[in-house]
């Protein structure tokens, strides 16, 4: 490939600089993730799960995987688990709850299926100092709760996240689940790096995240959380974890992520093409939230400049990624033209082969942390490369369709009319007060 530089050297300089820049920052992320350390367990913890933790699980169709997940939550001995569902699902979910532990699990309902309303209903019914939101299929290690609570010893920390791995739905992972596992492995590196570098994180994943209840009980938060609109007219139901993360930043709270085996949860992903719908929904949420963080709220620039950089980088990522094959196609075309007519020396097959070898080598290198514990997944690297280009096109499509706020993989979720009706219908409902203990932070700042 270097022989091509003798043909038209200036073409390759900017792309070489871009490539060097991107892989330099990747090496910086790797180095930061290796030097990152989780917060250790305190000798005399301030917060005890059986006194201070309520787990809130918004769901509408929990299946048998819920039982395994619920049993894993109960190992940590939380004070209570609240299952929040829509009214028509109370019976089936009550049966599941009774089959697991009726003394520690309560099932509450809202009139309509809307995740943010369900979460808000759970918040209003919480009486402990710490709330942990969890997906109905999130399987925890026994040590997850103590390690999350350890972070709250720092009174400045308002939200805590964890690292994640994929739990296959069947005996073997499908290609879709492997792609999801690749993404999570890369994400684990990124969040460990950003936490180590400037203490920030782009998103405290909603699969499992813990927050101080005093923050979420704030009427201003509850109102904004359930009345969140894109461009003032598109009601948002998904993207709750992005909203919560932005709220931490904009209100001066620190966050932390426990990236360690002791706090690494397992979560199922869609084992078929529906995974693409999940990714599309996540991508739209990321666009909307990052644009707000960078250009509307702007707190991220001073609070977490490294995270702000990663957000800006991701804005341009699909365009720079697609520029690669476009340039290679151009060079391959020029290679078919005789040299004396302005063509290049190398044959087109050499150009294409060199590019494919480079792609496979660099993408495999990026996936080494995942391949270290699942080397058999190396056969899926070509699928990961193809998915990367598909994802770049999807990101551009998502940017052009940010007005689409549907859930994607579930029908009947997030109806704006239903959401508004549900809020109105609960205005006169009385909720139990927050139990504020002696170690409740910011007691005086809670807006009654």
UniProtKB/TrEMBL annotation:
Domain of life: Eukaryota
Keywords recorded for this protein, A-Z: Glycoprotein, Glycosyltransferase, Membrane, Transferase, Transmembrane, Transmembrane helix
Transmembrane segments: 12-28, 315-333, 377-400
GO molecular function: glycosyltransferase activity
Any one of the GO CC terms: membrane
Coiled coil: none
Pfam families: Glyco_tranf_2_3
Compartments it resides in: Membrane
Name under which the protein is recorded: Glycosyltransferase family 2 protein
Organism: Wolfiporia cocos (strain MD-104) (Brown rot fungus)
Upper lineage: Eukaryota, Fungi, Dikarya, Basidiomycota, Agaricomycotina
């Amino acid at each position: 490939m270097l022989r091509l530089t003798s043909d038209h050297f200036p073409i390759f300089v900017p792309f070489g600089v871009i490539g060097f820049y991107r892989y330099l920052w990747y090496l910086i992320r790797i180095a930061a993730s290796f030097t990152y350390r989780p917060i250790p367990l305190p000798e005399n913890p301030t917060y005890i799960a059986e006194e201070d933790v309520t787990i809130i699980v918004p769901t509408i169709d929990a299946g048998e995987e819920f039982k395994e997940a619920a049993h894993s939550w109960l190992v940590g001995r939380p004070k209570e688990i609240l299952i929040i569902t829509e009214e028509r699902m109370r019976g089936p979910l009550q049966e599941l709850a009774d089959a697991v532990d009726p003394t520690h699990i309560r099932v509450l309902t809202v009139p309509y299926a809307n995740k943010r309303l369900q979460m808000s209903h759970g918040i209003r019914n919480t009486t402990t100092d710490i709330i942990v939101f969890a997906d109905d299929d999130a399987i925890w290690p026994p040590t997850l709760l103590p390690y999350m609570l350890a972070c709250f010893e720092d009174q400045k920390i308002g939200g805590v996240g964890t690292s994640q791995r994929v739990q296959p739905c069947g005996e073997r992972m499908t290609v879709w689940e492997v792609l999801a596992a690749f993404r999570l492995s890369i994400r684990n590196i990124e969040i460990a790096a950003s936490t180590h570098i400037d203490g920030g994180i782009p998103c405290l994943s909603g699969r499992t995240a813990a927050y101080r209840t005093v923050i979420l009980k704030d009427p201003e938060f509850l109102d904004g959380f359930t009345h969140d609109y894109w461009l003032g007219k598109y009601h948002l139901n998904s993207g709750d974890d992005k909203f919560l993360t932005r709220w931490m930043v904009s209100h001066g709270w620190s966050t932390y992520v426990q990236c360690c085996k002791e706090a690494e949860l397992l979560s199922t992903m869609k084992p078929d093409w529906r995974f693409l719908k999940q990714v599309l929904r996540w991508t739209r949420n990321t666009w909307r939230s990052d644009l707000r963080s960078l250009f509307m709220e702007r707190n991220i620039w001073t609070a977490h400049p490294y995270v702000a950089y990663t957000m800006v980088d991701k804005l341009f990522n699909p365009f720079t990624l697609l520029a690669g094959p476009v340039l290679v196609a151009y060079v391959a075309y020029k290679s078919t033209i005789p040299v004396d007519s302005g063509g290049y020396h190398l044959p087109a097959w050499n150009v294409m082969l060199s590019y494919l070898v480079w792609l496979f080598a660099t993408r495999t290198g990026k996936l080494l942390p995942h391949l270290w514990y699942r080397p058999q997944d190396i056969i899926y690297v070509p699928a990961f490369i193809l998915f990367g280009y598909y994802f770049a096109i999807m990101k551009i499509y998502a940017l052009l369709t940010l007005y689409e706020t549907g859930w994607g993989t579930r029908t009947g979720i997030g109806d704006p009319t239903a959401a508004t009706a549900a809020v109105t219908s609960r205005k006169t409902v009385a909720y139990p007060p927050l139990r504020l203990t002696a170690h409740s932070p910011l007691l005086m700042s809670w807006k009654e």
